[in-house]
Amino acid sequence: AQSVAQPEDQVNVAEGNPLTVKCTYSVSGNPYLFWYVQYPNRGLQFLLKYITGDNLVKGSYGFEAEFNKSQTSFHLKKPSALVSDSALYFCAVRDPASGGSYIPTFGRGTSLIVHP
Amino acid sequence: DADVTQTPRNRITKTGKRIMLECSQTKGHDRMYWYRQDPGLGLRLIYYSFDVKDINKGEISDGYSVSRQAQAKFSLSLESAIPNQTALYFCATSDIGVKGYTFGSGTRLTVV
């Protein structure tokens, strides 16, 4: 079975500081990992994904994520936060070894608040 | 125009009423999904469809039904709405590869 955890309900950071939003996962095989962002009154938007290859993945809006197999983590990072980054962030995992539907499992979401 | 369009954007309905939420897409994707979002619970899968003749239950399908009218259209029905179905509902599409989902803007449903 696949699962994903976002241990923080909310992350607060000052504008200009680096930010990290944490995600850990559990799968039986090698994971496919995704990050999505949800701005107020909007649907989720795809940010980035890890399928294979380089452990550091770069995505939209200056975000990046680091895949760490030994720690089963896929933390989302940005070197310098903007107030406009304030949103709800979702991590998702898909286990290609699970067979069948390959439906990803989403985390519960982390609210990022960037203070001016 | 949006790639995935959901109608209505907001709806208030009474307990016991039947309501349909509609989703249409211009992505050309075969796979379509209905999710429910509740605060603190994240996204939970209600139903999904991999093509017009394929409908599958998700983790929380009780009280819901779906219809895949065409490749581009996937509707969600609440046969007899109840207050705990008050939530934000999202339609999403994907292809068969490893790309991410494309989500609609959501329907905020309130059952009173």
The overall average pLDDT of chain A, rounded, is: 92
Instruction: State mean pLDDT of chain B (0 to 100 scale).
Output: 93
The total of helices of chain A stands at 0
Q: Name the beta content range of chain B.
A: over 45%
Radius of gyration of chain A from the CA trace? Answer: 14 Å
Q: How many strands, which pairing sense, and closed or not: the largest β-sheet of chain A? A: 6 strands, mixed
Low confidence ranges of chain B:
none
Please give the count of helices of chain B.
0
**What's the overall geometry of chain B?**
globular
How far apart the termini of chain B lie comes to 32 Å
Oligomeric state of the chains present here: heterodimer
Main interface by residue count:
A-B, 20 and 23 residues
- What is the ordering of alpha helices and beta strands of chain A? EEEEEEEEEEEE
Low-confidence spans of chain A: none
**Shape summary of chain A:** globular
Calculate Rg of chain B over CA atoms.
Answer: 13 Å
Q: Key features?
A:
heterodimer; A: 116 residues; mainly beta; four-stranded antiparallel sheet; globular; B: 112 residues
